[in-house]
Write a structure and sequence with these properties.
The complex is a heterodimer of chains A (154) and B (594). With 154 residues, chain A is an alpha+beta fold. Helices cover 19% and strands 21% of the residues of chain A. Chain B is of the alpha/beta class and 594 residues long. Chain B contains 14 helices and 24 strands. The radius of gyration of chain B is 30 Å and the shape is globular. The chains are: A alpha+beta (154), B alpha/beta (594).
């Protein structure tokens, strides 16, 4: 499967990846509206660790043997057996944060969603659960610090 | 007094917090769950059912084992037997059900077609409960007399409630447990009825929960949505004694109070006083009496290991299993809450009744049962707990209450209702408490799991959440770049010297320099709001995005580096040199990023 890899040396901490991700995952699909109108559904799924001498965008690794999937108490977190994409079903998720306690990269967060809270993480910008799409963070990066390439061996 | 003029304090409090869950119709689980599998189990001439693999238990470990077995062996017959009449459901979800965060049609652990698709025969229901196993004959007997002959058997029977004897508790319709879906639905119905009855009489409704551990606390949270007050008694001097420390427990207790949950650690019920078939009050250990409408017993759980023990299996604090998860009975394996595991951090042998552990063990046991070569062993584990109550998040792991002389140093950070504690031993993290500070908890877990030397991390990784940047560059690359193609170097450039960086055929995202906004402008994502002004190339919002293409595996074998961490030094330095030549040349030619 293809995965997003961050090339730390090129990252300039501009966070356009976060903006593009949040915009795509908002109900407005528009960056300004997602931020200005405080779209409650909009959470970025890639996070730039930075503010330091170096910065790097971190997103879900869609692991071969995901710990989040193993830990999920509701069966919401699943790895698609065909595409390999790991996604969380927002209807089944109850926001228990078991996935948060297991992800070695800290790339899943639990955010408010009405009466409950749910797991939010990179879904490769797919249209449906388990379907990879065209990652907006990769497209938005001005410096090619994010690449979307075929993985080897996993 | 008209009923609707009685507004109990409890109801107003719950309504203020938005916690009044719909009670118009408490669902009947029977509506949503039917006999889930159409797959028939083979029957022998002597009337015994036959299965290559018999899985006793239909929860985390059982389901993980069943699907792993099917993935390993397409032909074998798999039979799952359980005393609960439902398709597998996420057991920890039962409290969320009462809170309106999930519903009966969403608690299924797998989809409706799971059993059929994996050709798993099922026997689910009280009559199907396995009551004995004969390891020598390879047979299991059910309550209704059905006998199953198996090739290999997995005990995934989980935990059973530990019910201490409290005088007056027998024969009471309003004494509940909180382990199963039926338990939760029964408690829900009783709670709603009790509140209605209490309000009719101008009183408040009260549930007493005996046991302030995880189950008791979640039961209290759930029931607080349906009654006016929940009082939690805990034998220990703090609530959540197994998963939290004193300071954290104090904070949780304080934060639960506005929700109508009163915790009384160090106190318990000596006897339950009843009228007819209902308990009406509890006689407490301090001599006082507390009226109540309902009682939930949540004192603790123990491994449901009687089947194996009765057949002669070795048991410590749970079923003793080898690295292949086989019990001391041949061809009888065990996984999940029923086993005892070796605690990696303390060396203790104890049950580890956690959902992720059950799934993991179920998978490993199945690999060994199926005889998969090089199946990984199950060696040891450690606890990772994740739970939430209302707005409170609690994540804990490993050693959190070290004793003097354990050689541990403790770092704590308190800020308002946020409480973080880190236990360090031998220069590595061995435990943490993260109360209302959940960010990056999994990174801390991986620090415990991988025994990461703290000296190898930059900066203070405790006073604020640890991040990937705290690891050294090499370690960070290794962690984050699994599967990174060997055809690319550490700058993301192709190792093939014949490929120019902007040629569009190189293994990359296809993004050319200077056309960032175009890529986001397609597919309905509007990115022309001024953010990309510095890169304005005049493209319209309707233009197609630059396609993400990659050239896949590099056909030139010479440039293959074969390692996930990038290229060999020679290729890398050549590509760096080539690139700097190109860049210095391009700067004058094309004026990108002007």
């Amino acid at each position: 499967m293809k995965r997003i890899y961050a090339i730390e040396n090129w990252c300039i901490d501009c966070k356009r990846c976060e903006v593009a991700c949040k915009a795509f995952h908002s109900s407005y699909r528009d960056a300004v509206k997602a931020y200005q109108l405080e779209d409650e559904t909009a959470f970025e799924r890639v996070r730039v660790e930075g503010g330091l001498m170096r910065s790097v965008a971190v997103n879900c690794r869609h692991c071969a043997h995901p710990k989040c999937v193993e830990g999920c108490i509701s069966g919401a977190m699943r790895k698609d057996p065909v595409t390999g994409v790991v996604t969380s079903d927002p209807d089944k998720c109850v926001g228990c944060r078991t996935c948060v306690s297991m992800c070695p990269f800290g790339c899943v967060r639990v955010e408010p969603a009405g009466v409950k809270a749910i797991a939010i993480k990179c879904d490769l910008c797919g249209d449906g659960a388990g379907e990879p799409g065209e990652p907006r963070c990769v497209a938005a990066c001005p410096n090619r610090a994010l690449i979307y390439v075929e993985s080897e061996g996993c | 007094m008209a009923q609707d003029t009685i507004r109990s304090q409890g109801y107003e409090r719950r309504a203020a917090f938005g916690l009044v869950a719909p009670t118009a119709s408490i669902p009947s689980a029977g509506d949503a769950y039917a006999r889930p599998s159409a797959i028939a189990c083979p029957v022998a001439n002597d009337g015994r059912l036959e299965a290559d693999y018999l899985i006793i238990g239909n929860s985390a470990a059982g389901v993980a084992a069943a699907e792993t077995l099917r993935a390993c062996d397409g032909e074998a017959s798999i039979l799952m037997v359980s005393d609960e009449p439902y398709a597998a459901y996420g057991r920890p979800l039962i409290s969320y059900l009462l809170e309106g965060k999930t519903s009966i049609d969403r608690v299924g652990y797998r989809d409706a077609g799971f059993y059929d698709r994996n050709r798993i025969a099922t026997l689910f229901g009280a009559a199907c409960k396995v009551v004995s196993i004969d390891p020598e004959a390879h047979e299991a007997a059910c309550a209704d007399g059905t006998v199953i002959r198996y090739g290999k058997c997995l005990l995934a029977t989980g935990s059973v409630a530990f019910v201490p004897h409290i005088e007056g508790m027998e024969g009471r319709a309003n004494v509940h447990r909180f382990m199963t879906l039926d338990d939760a639905l029964g408690a829900w119905e009783d709670a709603v009825e009790s509140t209605r009855r209490a309000h009719d009489e101008g009183c408040e409704s009260r549930v007493i929960v005996i046991g302030g551990g995880l189950i008791g606390a979640k039961a209290a949270e759930a029931l607080s949505h349906h009654v006016d007050e929940v009082v939690v008694f805990e034998h220990n001097n703090r609530i959540l004694p197994a998963v939290l420390d004193e300071e954290g427990a104090g904070i949780v207790q304080r934060l639960l109070e506005p929700h109508g949950i009163v915790c009384r650690p160090g106190m318990s019920a000596e006897a339950l006083v009843g009228e007819g078939d209902r308990v009406v009050s509890a006689h407490l250990t301090d001599g006082s009496d507390l009226p109540c409408d309902m009682v939930v017993m949540a004192v603790g759980v123990r491994p449901a290991s009687s089947l194996a023990v009765d057949a002669g299996a070795e048991q410590g604090r749970g079923l003793v299993v080898g690295r292949d998860l086989q019990t001391t009975l041949p061809d009888v394996y065990a996984a999940g809450d029923v086993t005892q595991v070796s605690d990696r951090l303390t060396g203790a042998q104890r049950p580890l009744a956690l959902w992720p552990n059950a799934v993991h063990q179920g998978r490993i046991a199945a690999l060994h049962m199926a005889g998969v070569p090089d199946a990984p062993d199950f060696v040891d584990s450690f606890a990772v707990n994740a739970v939430d109550f209302f707005d409170i998040s609690l994540l804990t792991s490993g050693i959190i209450n070290p004793s003097e002389g354990d050689g541990c140093e403790v770092h704590t950070f308190v800020e308002g209702d946020e409480y973080a504690k880190f236990v360090v031993r031998g220069g590595a993290l061995v435990g943490y408490v993260l109360l209302n500070r959940p960010d990056d908890a999994g990174v801390y877990t991986s620090m415990i799991e991988d025994e990461v030397p703290l000296s190898s991390l930059e900066g203070d990784v405790f006073s604020r959440p640890v991040g990937n940047l705290d690891f050294s560059e090499d370690v960070r690359w290794r962690r984050l770049h699994k599967g990174y193609p060997g055809t690319l170097d550490e700058f993301g450039w192709s190792c093939d010297p014949g490929v120019r960086p902007d040629s569009g055929t190189d293994s990359g995202s296809g993004t050319d320099f200077g056309t960032g906004p175009d890529c986001c402008a397609g597919r309905g994502v509007a990115f022309d709001s001024g953010v990309g002004a510095a890169f304005d190339s005049g493209a319209s919002a309707d233009s197609d995005p630059v396609s993400s293409s990659d050239s896949g595996a590099d056909p030139n074998p010479d440039s293959s580096s074969g390692s996930g961490s990038g290229s060999d030094p020679d290729t890398s330095s050549k590509s760096r040199q080539r690139r700097s030549e190109l860049l210095s040349g391009r700067a004058s030619e094309e004026g990108d990023f002007a």
